[in-house]
Amino acid sequence: MSPYPVVLFFSLFCSAFATDWVSLGPPFSGADDHFSRPDGGLVIHVVMGEQVLRSDDGGQAWVADSSGLEGFGVAYLGGNSSWLFAVGQEGLYRKAINASTWSPGGAGLPNDLVGVGASLSAPQTVYVTTHREVYRSTDGGLSFQLRYSGFEVPSRLLVHSQNPDLLFGSHRDYGLSRSSDGGASWTSLAQYGVVASSPSAPDILYASNHFNPGLSKSEDAGNTWQGLGGLPFLRFPFIAVDASGPDTVYAVDEMGATYKTMDGGASWALQGNPATNSILFFSASADVPGLLLLSSLFGVYRSADGGASWSKLDNGLPGMPTTRLAVDPSSSGTLHAAGTGQFGPFHTSPGITFSNNLGATWNAFVLRSFSGFDHLLVDPSNGNYVYTTPTSDGVQANIYKSSDGGNTWQRSVEGLELPGDEVGALAIAPSQPNVLYAGQGSSGFYRSDNRAATWTPTHLIAGFFRCKALVVHPNTPDIVYGAYTTGFSGVDHLLKTTNGGASWSEITSPGPVTDMIIDPSGSGAVFAALDNGGIYRSGNGGSTWTPVGPAGQKIHDLDLDLRLPQFLFAAAGDRVFSSMDGGFNWMALPQTNPAFEVNQVAVDAVEGIVYIGTEGGVFVRYGISAVPVLSSTGMIVFVLALLFGGLWWQRPIAQGANQEAR
Predict the structure, then answer these.
(1) Which H/E stretch holds residue 636?
(2) What percent of the chain has pLDDT over 90?
(3) pTM of the prediction?
């Protein structure tokens, strides 16, 4: 058949919608690293989700600043008044301070860089470190020369603001060290581990000790040190010197409390602080007195009055890295989200949260002792029942169940062969939601008939095994498809049962399946997303499969609109693809801004909206799948498109054509 009517139909449909993706949080906007430009402005850069964002007004609003960094995982930032540098496991990128695009640098550098420090007095001089080496560039980061190799290499660098050959480096195990010859040799400075100085008086240093409580001060570039009193008997992992001069200093203790001195450490006063012991970084502006920036696991905060008051910076910053989403069909506007908390080189576990108002506000995080979550499901008839499969990471995991809408959780593993082993797939029977199926990594498939209270094995598999996906027919709870791999090379298998797991038969597998969905309408078509690219469709119960697109795309997740099941959505890379003809044709929707990896797509058929879980949080796009939210102009265009499509679809089809779809 000719594709042109479908293409025109798609074009008309998409022109009816004017909305882009809207960020909903959840509020977990912790930043890994940052750089404040020392050039008389309020320009701040932060690293979030391995991307760079920029604020031109001291942190009140943020925009993406990652052009040229696509595919490069940023871990740390550094710079001066001329250059900005980004380093990570793949090397170094650089850009002129006012440029819009990053470009590769670092000729002669290895990968896996862990530190960067740029000179203020010699803008072309920059240092980077690996775990065992120090490199220096004198041409603005184009090329580097090895300066030092050893075990006690500092991971964080502070370059003297007036002498580009004088460096201070901190290492969490070896403490503070100093180099006076451009990094060629290093001298240990006792056991001090974190150091800060004022650009206007760089010989005055403040340092903390990783192993002993308190702070110390040096007025001769680290030759001699004196202890400072007036502080609690705690360690201080963060120190910042105010732009007003070397006498105003901020110190954050290991419990998250902030202290301030205005007399060079002779006396200290406790300041306000929006975070506790979850701080990722704390810094003072290099040029604006009293301007502070703090990042914790729950947000980035700004103080313009030296820590007396703080405001959270939500305008343009991404939310919690979200791997799993689940819409509650029985409660309008209720959405559950689970996140891994992976930001650059740091790893934290924010847990699971939910919103009862379309993502406007979020509940407190729960299940925070896990490193991630593979599945998140809501009972379609009773939203009090929610299920998830946490990633173990040394903690007893498997299947967890909530009976109060996600507020509290209990482990539900009775009957599983290996209660501590990872569950690779979990599915609810939509037409009989007390029935669930699970696939466990080293044993096989299980069924529960009492909302996960107990489990019964239905198909045990010997040897190395990994369950990849499960889907239950939306109208028949006994029809189930299960995808798994065997062997260390990952041989793909696809099983099907039509009697609730009493017996299973192997059917043709289209490839390495990552997710499956079934059309609840009369067609009963099965769709399989593949890890090696594309989506396949079967119209005959899995006997044969036909590729339907989008070709060449690694598909993470599939979903459809239960009210309008011809509307399908697929998460692939940093994009979402949609089909409105039952999966035969697909088109890419606009990316989020900035573009984040999309982990899951979830359709709220009641509200007529689509959510996506990304590495930058949850986003929503209004008016994708439901006609009622269209504007009047959009409605006219959409109705015309439907009429046109309906007339075209009623044309006679040549015998034998498209038989699988029928």
Answers:
(1) helix 632-649
(2) 46
(3) 0.70
